[in-house]
């Protein structure tokens, strides 16, 4: 007892535990009572179908139900994460004490026990500083595991108003949070959001909010917390309209996917850039193209090529229409067919044009009839459209074309060269066709996604299939119809059934992370999903993998148009130790002097290790073994694409202790991620094999939270800055 009193941390924890217990007890009560009300409501409906719950009961039922449902949902997530519902406390100059948490909880008298972190009353928790204390004397961060308080970190903001009894513990929550080892998933920062981050999080939703800043400045977490904030402050708009969060890769999404649920938000669609078009095409991809091919596929110069592609007739299409009417042969010849095609495509998308094409064919046939054909126009049309030869012709001559079927055609080098003449050089056209050779076997690459999306837009949705019996009549066997949409295509594009429907899903808010990598074609794809949305765009041009930064900028400016723009710059690197970031920034400024360099706040006293090995494969295993011993958390092995699989196999074969903490990634895949220890394998190859060159190496070098090791082959690499 005396011992507990003499230890200020223990007694302060006990005080906070009391309040946290109160909150959990209240939540338990509310959950039970909501279940009872819901149960009562259900039996009311069951016992008397004609009667309704009285309005006010209904509202209460709704409120409690929602409250308990939300609370139960959030608690399930929090328990799994071992993080607390209540994480902050403010002691104010007027003596008021406010607790801040992931959701707001009130007691029976409607007095707040905890304030939702997104509520205006919680703002001083994030904005108050010693120079502008906003009536806050002490800011306290509680560290909880589930409902148990396990730690406290205080910031004294206004010592003048602190009375003698106020206990201040720890050196501040931020440093404590930053020095903790990382797991394989990103954690929320709700307890330690910094003032400049808070401003971006709470900015109004309208127009475009652009958040920039160097590596590790919290752009991603800020974007995600902003999403949670927008849902809280404008729930009706954003929950019904939908929020889309786009990240660079599937690996990245796995890394961030817990952040929003831990903040109580689950109604958000997360998509990797490769899977954005999954609402309109069945197969999407995460494969990367090589640097040069990606540059061609991502460029706006692809647009005229795709436009030509959709109007280009298939090689095996019939060249002449012949039907027999009243014993007379009527013919529409190839020149006339071409004119009809041009005319219909001037007014219709290909997949919406068959009906108009049919009408034009009927008119052409009608005009060509000899005088022996003796019938009215209506009768003539009915007769001709009932002829198998006519229907078979129209399906073969005007097939419905799916986007993958169209894109696949560009794998033919001769066709690619012909259609690309002008916008692309012959060498670029060859890269394009070679880059589509694996489309059928391996599926699309990330860059193909935007091309497929553009094609869906140009072709229009594939119309519904004809009746089953007709399908087998016209689709089986005949080589003329080999390019029409296959049954597999049809089944795989279930959304493309209503020709009048907008094929793309649209959203009320779009968050684009790592936006510096978004190619112009991808911006077009994203814009279709957010035509009337507000946007948050997060990025750092110094980390761009896109070779033509100016073209990407132009594409973004075009999306923004005249909409209001708000800009925020994050200035502090919370991830990398100063020693690591110093090396990384020297590397990037040599090639990219305008890089926006943040200030690293933490120092570990350990310089990066620049190692050289005669044999890279054994070197990798040795260095990873050492790193596993030096850091508690994750170890990332960042490789050039050509060495990734080998490194993974060698590390698996070595069966190192702690192997579950290792992740092997390419420099491109390491975008947005972080590890406690990082080994960058052959940095010169990272530069040579990545579209962004030195900028991609900069990304790799800025992934560690603790230790950085680089490994050169044979001798010190050319990438090293002078003096390193
Ligand atoms: N206020 C904060 N409190 C605690 N940790 C923070 C804070 N801000 C950022 N961090 C941590 O810093 C690290 C980097 O954050 P994040 O990945 O969002 O940065 P980024 O700017 O997106 O980086 P990059 O551009 O390199 O991808 C994360 O571990 C994040 O949790």
Q: Can you characterise this structure?
A:
The protein is α/β, with parallel strands linked by helices and 724 residues long. It has 5 domains: 8-46 and 55-180, no CATH class; 189-279 and 504-573, Rossmann fold (3-Layer(aba) Sandwich); 291-311 and 403-459, no CATH class; 321-397, no CATH class; 578-713, 3-Layer(aba) Sandwich (Rossmann fold). Helix content is 45%, strand content 17%. The protein has 30 helices and 21 strands. A 6-stranded mixed β-sheet has the order 3-4-2-1-5-6, with helices on one face. Strands 9-8-12-13-7-14 form a 6-stranded parallel β-sheet. The chain has a 5-stranded parallel β-sheet with strand order 17-21-20-18-19, sandwiched between helices. The radius of gyration is 31 Å and the shape is globular. Mean pLDDT is 86; it is low at 45-62 and 468-500. Bound molecules: adenosine-5'-triphosphate. Adenosine-5'-triphosphate is lined by residues 174, 177-178, 187, 189, 192-194, 197, 213, 215-221, 540, 543, 574-575, 672, 674, 702. Residues 174, 177-178, 187, 189, 192-194, 197, 213, 215-221, 540, 543, 574-575, 672, 674, 702 line the site of adenosine-5'-triphosphate. ATP binds at residues 213-220. This is DNA helicase IV. One of its GO terms (molecular function) is DNA binding. Residues 192-577 form the UvrD-like helicase ATP-binding domain.
